[in-house]
Amino acid sequence: MKTSEDIKALATAMTKAQENIKGIKPDADNPFFKSNYITLDNILEVVRPILTKEDIWLTQNISSNGEYVEVTTRLTHTTGEWLETDILRMKPTKMDPQQLGSCITYAKRYQLSGLLGISSDVDDDGNKATFGTDKPKTITLDQANKLRTLTKEKKISEEYICKFRKVSRFEELKENDYQQVMEWLMKR
Predict the structure, then answer these.
(1) Assuming Cys at both sites, which of 69, 162, 165, 173 could form a disulfide with 103, CB separation 3.0 to 4.6 Å?
(2) CA 4 – CA 82 distance, rounded (Å)
């Protein structure tokens, strides 16, 4: 991160702004990971008036070298003080308008969220970090049957458990859910 020589007024204004940046609700779905997230539009709709009230101007600079998209985010106070993120460089999967636009929006959302301390994604329980960009693996049929046996013993329905895991049947549970569900059932 880079800053102007002095950021005392900006830091004071940001402290006041952060007191008011709260309660941003997810407004979009990621069907791949069965999770929700907050869109860039939603973040901007909430933070722009708050930053403006504290005399802070938000800018996000976009550039491309033909292979990568680069984004920097800067907050500037009316005193001239500023702070700016390091460059976030991302490579679109294809160099077409849709991929470029998607990459730019993603980079802007994550940079702005990080700079303002906003969690823009619902916690995915480490799925993305554990499984990367590949779809998380589901449990085996044997594991699903073990869960069914245990739920019958405990007199808890499959539907009840699946509702909280946002799946319709045990076979759709992810590997990291299996141990958590088993531990929960054993305690019942």
Answers:
(1) 69
(2) 5
Task: Please tell me the chain's helix, strand, coil percentages from 3-state DSSP, rounded to the nearest 5.
Answer: 50, 20, 35
H or E segment at 76? strand 69-77
Nearest to 72 by CA among 82, 85, 83, 81: 85
| Cβ atoms of residues 113 and 43 within 8 Å | yes
Nearest residue to 13 via CA among 93, 64, 79, 74? 79
State pTM to two decimals: 0.62
Q: How does pLDDT run across 83-109, given as a tens digit for each residue?
A: 999 999 998 888 788 888 888 998 999
Please state, in angstroms and rounded to a whole number, the distance separating the CA atoms of residues 152 and 144.
12
